[in-house]
Amino acid sequence: MEKYKNCPVCHTINPPTAQNCSECGYRFGDEPALTDDELKQMERKKKRASALMSCVIFVILASLIAATMIKGPAFGGLVILIWLGVLIVAVAAVYVVSKIVKHNDIQKQKRDRR
User: Which CA distances in Å does 52 have to 49, 66, 76?
Assistant: First the structure.
């Protein structure tokens, strides 16, 4: 059974022989390697989280379309544009914050190595 190394900083799956993470450079120590079953379970969790996020976005967009139909096309179109703008800004903010947190984790790990 093949085992893999999961980076605790960026969660990149690395080959079992890796000394450092291929994504962020984290130096592997005594972290336990993942089996094929554990790797598949992690992938299923990621897919579930992605499906949940897609459902939430669908519900928001469906609500906006329903609001347009109820309030009328002139007012509703403006509401949709405003909410789409808010949605885009929120998604961008989540992306930027996740990148900042990941960067800070990598920097902390590098400082701890010294």
Answer: 5, 21, 26
pLDDT, one tens digit per residue, over 7-28 is: 877 778 888 888 888 888 888 8
Residue with tokens 């179109």: 77
Contacts of residue 2, defined as CB under 8 A and 6 or more positions apart, other chains included, come to 16, 35, 36
Spatial distance between the Cα atoms of 111 and 2, rounded to a whole number of angstroms: 32
Distance of alpha carbon 68 from alpha carbon 75, whole angstroms: 7
Residue 39 confidence class, pLDDT cut points 50, 70, 90 = confident
Please give the model's pTM, rounded to 2 decimal places. Answer: 0.45
